[in-house]
Amino acid sequence: MKVELFGVSKDTFARVATTIITKTIKFLTHQFDLDEDLLWKLVYKCIQELDKRGFKFYLRDDITNVLHQVDEYIVTKVESDVDDAIKEFKDLTEKNYPPIIPVFSETEEGPTPLGGELRLRAPWVDKDPET
């Protein structure tokens, strides 16, 4: 089934929308000396936020499919996804556990001029290793 919007196919309309996005980013980059990577990240985050909130606009999949052919968008998407995964991993693994303080012991008398034996053990290990 061929769906048309304003007499133009969805695929063509998505390509035009993507071209407008790309040209706008290029214009803003050159005209106002803005960071192109930051603008692509803004586009990606906007689409991601719309998805998160359940707002599915009419040509979203078609536009996203065409955007996936733009190198800058792919780089931004991958970097953003990796950054989000790292942040999520840190949130899950970085707990505020109390530091483990080892137990130190020594015998002051011994066969050498420095004294006897020095020991360092974990607090959960028994004092006498022989038992």
Provide structural commentary.
The chain is mainly alpha-helical and 131 residues long. It has a domain of 90 residues. Helices cover 54% and strands 9% of the residues. A two-stranded antiparallel sheet has the order 1-2. Strands 3-4 form a two-stranded antiparallel ribbon. The N and C termini lie far apart (80 Å). The mean pLDDT is 84.
Q: Give me the side-by-side strand order of the main sheet.
A: 1-2
Radius of gyration: 30 Å
Helix content: 40-55%
Q: Regions with pLDDT < 50 over 5+ consecutive residues?
A: none
Write the H/E string, N to C: EEHHHHEE
Whole-Å distance between the termini?
A: 80 Å
Largest sheet: 2 strands, antiparallel
Mean pLDDT: 84
Structural class: mainly alpha
Strand percent estimate: 5-15%
The coarse silhouette is: rod-shaped
Oligomer: single chain
Strands, total number: 4
Task: Enumerate how many helices there are, as a single number.
Answer: 4
Give me some keywords for this one.
4 helices; 9% strand; 131 residues; mainly alpha
Q: How does the SSE layout of this entry go?
A:
Blueprint: E1 4-5, E2 8-9, H1 10-32, H2 36-52, H3 60-67, H4 71-93, E3 103-106, E4 118-121
Antiparallel strand pairs: 1-2, 3-4
Helix pairs in contact: 1-2, 1-3, 2-4
